Amino acid sequence: CCWSQSITTGRYCIKFFLSKIPISSSLPKGAEHAATATLPAAFSDLLPHFQVEPEDEYIVKNKPVTLTCRSTPATQIYFKCNGEWVHQDDHLIERTVDPATALPIMQVTIDITRQQVEKIFGLDQYWCQCVAWSTTGTQKSQKAYIRIAYLRKNFEEEPQGKEVALDQEVLLRCHPPEGVPQPEVEWQRNEDILNPESDPNFFVTADHNLIIRKARMADTGNYTCVAKNIVARRKSTSAAVLVYVNGGWSTWTTWSSCSAVCGRGWQKRSRSCTNPTPLNGGSSCEGQNIQKSVCVATCPVDGGWSEWSKWSACGADCSMWRTRECTQPSPGTGGKDCQGLDLQSLNCTSEQCPQMRSSGYGSRLTLLLSVAAVSGAEDVALYVGVVAVALCLTLLLIVVVLVYRRKKEGLDADVADSSILTTGFQPMGIKPKNSHLLTIQPDLTTTTTSYQGTLRSRHDTTGKFSMTNGTLLDPLPNGSHTLHNGKLNPDPPEFVSRLSTQSYFKTLPRDVANASYGTFNFLGGRLTIPNTGISLLIPPEAIPRGKIYEIYLTVQRKEDLRLPLAGCQTLLGPVVSCGPPGVVLSRPVILSMDHCSDGCLDNWALRLKKQNYEGVWEDVLLMGEELVSEPYYCQLEAETCRLFSEQLGTFALVGESLHMGAAKRLRLVLFSDAYCSTLEYNIRVYCMDDTQEVFKEVMQMERQLGGRLIDEPHILLFKDSYHNLRLSIHDMPQAHWRSKLLAGYQEIPFYHIWNGSQRYLHCTFTLERLSLSTCELTCQLCVWQVEGEGQSFSLDFNIFMLMDSSASALAGPSAFQIPYLIRQKICSSLDAPCPNGADWRMLAQRLKLERHMSFFASKASPTSVILDLWEAQHFHSGNINQLAAVMADIGKQEAMIFLVSDGEC
């Protein structure tokens, strides 16, 4: 067989012959059966020459790398990795001809996977090289080393915060985490990258430390060391650098005037610590900022009148006068002059005045007219004042009438009867003993009050609330749900179908088994999804007065949502929806849900995510960095997260592990078939998040499958170490049972568990009985991560079911342990600051809630928020006597505050 091809570069024809030639025994397995192309005679004496040799590569995550080798002229090229030939089926071969030299070119590529490299990890470095053959001989390429790229999470040394004086040198140390390839390091200040080339005040040493040559005020900020390579980017904890300035005195002011007007006094001068002003905690100026000096002021002398002189003789005008002088003493040194007249005159009445005698009647008439004129002027002023007062009183009366009418209309439009405060109140099975505190026992046998309502607000002033033994509100069309004594009369199918036609309930699921709903007014209430650990507390006054809302609470299926998780993030709890989202709240509600983190905030960066109206998930809160001004606030307990929220919506708690010490709490649950009529027997193992809602869903699914629970659930701490979870069964009685599992263990991938994307994580162990009469099994299940020491659990066939008979919706006073009026009196007593600290702050300390002091202080009534949290924490297990003891310990024992009679209730 001959195949020829003309080469245009010469006047001859080069022929390639395909024939069998001897193959060296050193060739890879299978290569001896392959046909080898012989070189033309013109090139038969040439050794292979490599145009492309394999280069060092890094495997990033699980992506394989490709090695390429190209040689001319060559009849065969094969790769050898770690001294062993790579099988020919794993080679991809391309043959071409160099148009310049007419030499045949052969190119071979292979793929190297992470699994191949991990097989010899720790023994030697993984390397590959290619070997090319020609008719003359062989040539070997350079070795290419393949390494698995990684970057650890923990920095070997992180920068530490410092306080430095102005112009002082600052050294921030950073030793990046171990990584392959060697990570690069950059520095950030307040999330902005520092460039030492543009700012010579910064200098980065060869060992990645940052030096600030002269600290400036602008250099104050949070500094972060960032390490990165082709795998990941890691940030150290931020180091706060505070540049402070020590204060300096200004110059003295001039002396002030003497403080005394008369005699000995003081005068002073001052200086200020503003040259410069201390900043960022710098030391203040030492010494006094005020100096005083004694001064003596000359006393002023006020003038005084002398005695009146004697009356003069009666003059021709029938008048006489007398005088006095301001000479006893005379005013001096700024004293006051004498006040008053220094001359007085008087008409003569003696017989010596002829005018008086001849016109006595006229004089008396003139005197009377003068007096009348003066009296008339005084009466006019009096009348004007009386009229002004009358006008003011008239205007005030009009204002009072208008205010009274408006208040009367407002009272008609709202609930005015105080008996609603205790309508439906139930003591909830709590019987206080030996307690003088919180001892209301209302009579619930005389009246059964119910209320109904929809989402719309009650602003219609024509309809009045009925306070008789009938319904509180008029019934709504289509049959609204009624709460009797605070409990919901359930009609789930009709409720869901009615709400599904309304736009704001478009996200309410049809699965009423995992939903709760109820109707609430300003008295508040509680929604609970049984067996899930999920509840919504609606405190009193959270719903504005005059409005009634239909509120729902549901848990979403994780597989129906696209929750964005990146890097080391994982879902730590259920995805909970409460709504409708658009309702207006006067104060935050408390949403309680389980979480499965290890409870150590140092191991996690916990974020609260909320789904907006477009369906996009947004970060609304970072745990530990909450702002009291924001509408969300979280309290993380050992197994429960309490979310204070001023808005309703869909929420999820997501955690990002900060280092490999972080762990999720997993609940290991075992199920088997309740009835088995064959020799095969299945044991199903679930490894789920340690939250009640997931456990409830698995229980429901197993109930449909006819399964039963084996032994109690066990808690397993699953670490963020990238290692899978392995499970195996041991110590089975070999005389009666055998395992049909081919491998020695089953393995669940790490990311399958960590990201929480699937709800049902399980594996099945299929066992076989040797006889149908065998009905007992005792064995051991071992569970461990690849790097860990493992945990062993014994299996027993004990069935138990978790049932919760509590009502899913409670409205009004029956939803709370603390009666409404007593709660109001506690708030009025503790909200006001007390000099000895016997106020809401001491209550928070006694209840071990002092970590949230700033959050409580930001509210109009801190005591009310503390009591809301107590209600959310102790709904099922709270002891009202213990709360009474705490109040007594604070010192608030006044009977008028805490003891309320039945009449008041």
Automatic annotation (TrEMBL):
Keyword Signal: yes
Keyword Transmembrane helix set for record: yes
BP terms from Gene Ontology: anterior/posterior axon guidance
Subcellular location: Cell membrane
Family annotation (SUPFAM superfamilies): DEATH domain, Immunoglobulin, TSP-1 type 1 repeat
Listed transmembrane segments: 380-404
GO cellular component, one term: plasma membrane
UniProt domain Ig-like: residue ranges: 160-238
Coiled coil (residue ranges): none
Pfam family, one: Death
Major site of localization recorded for this protein: membrane
Lineage top rank: taxon: Eukaryota
Membrane topology: Single-pass type I membrane protein
InterPro entries reported for this sequence: DEATH-like_dom_sf, Death_dom, Ig-like_dom, Ig-like_dom_sf, Ig-like_fold, Ig_I-set, Ig_sub, Ig_sub2
Annotated PROSITE patterns: IG_LIKE, TSP1, ZU5
GO molecular function, one term: netrin receptor activity
Domain ZU5: start-end pairs: 514-657
Role according to the record: Receptor for netrin required for axon guidance. Mediates axon repulsion of neuronal growth cones in the developing nervous system upon ligand binding.
Similarity field: Belongs to the unc-5 family.
Protein's recorded name: Netrin receptor UNC5
